[in-house]
């Protein structure tokens, strides 16, 4: 007992040092998106719709970005934990080159060719398609800057330096807001570019961030110390490993978005669908706070488990997983209590419609009951990913998001006529169907034999 408690306390401190910058990072990303949309909103409804729809298109293409970055986080965590500095430098350099090649050879061409057709497929009107296409064209032409920023963040996560990543993001986002304002509205001799200006400001800010990021990955002041000489050829095995480790996480985001769209489709079958959709939208927006916390612990667990496993200490890796899961559960319990005790006040911040607030009350209270379990599941999935097992977290989450939320939600809401409460109950049940199998898988410990 005397040796376990200090070890767990040390692990808790190390996890928290990784987690809190990640939570702020997630919030910053949402905040800059809100501010950008607010500025574009001055231009009119068409401009808002163009940027909003274009961002949905970007989400499809960002799958590749997240896959490469997520996979490199796990690989570099193992190498860093093993103390293999030469390998850390090689992985960092190859990751940055791979991100750049993916942007130039895949993301930009696909984006330029498919951007407009995807906007049309999403049902956007002619004016929205025109403005959205111009916005996307600039973003896709600058995708190499986006890839560089995401790649640096992934590498820093692998070595546990999330505070550096947060500082970089804070700088890039601040520049993004300033430059977007200048390019959207024009100042002095600088003309107003409107919606296209929002894309220009974003690309320029990320370009500056890319330069700073290259310094971060190459400077001897940080552990990455990437060296680009002699990194070619990049073995196919390295690329396969990157995609194997990071791909499922990217696909999971697509499944989650599909689940939300299908849930809204079920809601349209219910009486008073407009108010229910409003209540659901508010509820899921607030739930993003708990999702941010869960995703932060997922990333932290992945990093710490990977580092300890790379160091040849599977027991410490297991301790990292359990500590992350319980710490996430404790923090989420506090958030869940607020959701359970103050549902009307939370809903009232977004709307003054009494019927929408009344519909949202049982939704918030039902969801709150299992939010700590969902946080536990997030952390466990990150632990398995750090242990080199990305597929089972993906499968458990996908089955929960599609089979449970959609099938059970339809059955409870429509067949058994429980209405909106049936949707809430299905979402709550999905937390259990995700947490139970993933915890059993982690407890069995087969991942401990993984070597990357």
Walk me through this protein's architecture.
The chain has 452 residues and is mainly alpha-helical. Helix content is 84%, strand content 0%. The chain has 14 helices and no strands. It has helices at 4-41, 45-81, 85-121, 126-141, 143-158, 162-185, 195-218, 236-267, 273-310, 314-341, 343-350, 354-386, 391-415, 420-444. The radius of gyration is 22 Å and the shape is globular. The model has no long low-confidence stretch (mean pLDDT 90).
Can you tag this structure with a few keywords?
452 residues; mainly alpha; globular
Please compute the radius of gyration using only Cα atoms.
22 Å
Main beta-sheet strand count, sense and barrel state: none
Spans of 5+ residues with little confidence (pLDDT < 50)? none
Strand tally is 0
Number of domains: 2
The amount of beta strand, in percent, is under 5%
Average pLDDT number = 90
How many helices does DSSP assign?
14
Q: What coarse outline follows from CA principal-axis ratios?
A: globular
SSE order: HHHHHHHHHHHHHH
**Helix and strand composition category:** mainly alpha
Distance between the termini: 32 Å
Residue share in helix? over 70%
Structure described in brief:
This protein is mainly alpha-helical and 452 residues long. The chain contains 14 helices and no strands. The mean pLDDT is 90.
